[in-house]
Amino acid sequence: MGLFNIFSRDKKERLDQGLQKTKSNIITRISKSIIGKSTIDDEVLDNLEEILVTSDVGVETTLKIIDRIQKRVSMDKYLGTGELNSILREEIAALLQENNIQDFTEFLIPEGKKPYVIMVVGVNGVGKTTTIGKLANQFVKSGKSVLLGAADTFRAAAVDQITIWADRVGVPVITQGMGADPASVAFDTLKSAIARDTDVVIIDTAGRLHNKVNLMNELSKIRKVMQKLMPEAPHEILLILDASTGQNAFEQAKQFTAATEVNALALTKLDGTAKGGVVIGISDQFKIPVKYIGVGEGIDDLQVFNRIEFVDSLFNN
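RE: above sequence
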């Protein structure tokens, strides 16, 4: 099985479709920038650098990519502009592979951790609750039992939304209503999950960033009360980021990783944006695995992120 053929055809087609706006934006601009050029020279590389930066790949990651291509060009003076897309694909894939961050191929949970507790964080509007619903759906499809906890009690709409998703997926949810203590909700959810012998617990949390100290205190309190029942909980702190916000996603990642021990990332709304390059930058800059990506509005349009397949979909003609 080839390096760029490790996903099923259906998943690959969904990924290709979800990245179409980003791909069209980058490839079209690259094609225009090399008109009249036969070889990859300094002007081509300057134009490519601008394209990647303005596609939200990020300055630091873009400079790494350009440096890699420059070294490759210097080794072979006759690289043509027609090869630029394939060179770009190969060098970005190699860069991300060198970061030594685990790739995922399925919606799996580690053995011996039951219930496996996921605490989900992120600002309002990034698709946090929707991602929780889609993630629960994938675990149910893989034969796991799931319990949701509605600990985003700051907004009544959040409790209602996660309840709707729970009904849609067919999983139970623990709620205490708007204004309840989020830590109390998390505690009750985990206690109930242990009693029910549940496989996976997913805890929603409030998405406020206006006061980082309060956010940090609240998330810390949620973790501490769960650890009274299960010392290693939560096993996963999953930060949800909206890819369509581009550089704002970088800033949110910085703030949340400073506020709590995020150990997994999910990028949503890739199908509705030309800023999908942000996934490359975030995967490179933060030494935290991008675990999931949202490539459509359907319930099955949450995918496990694989760097090789992502780069292939973005730059393959």
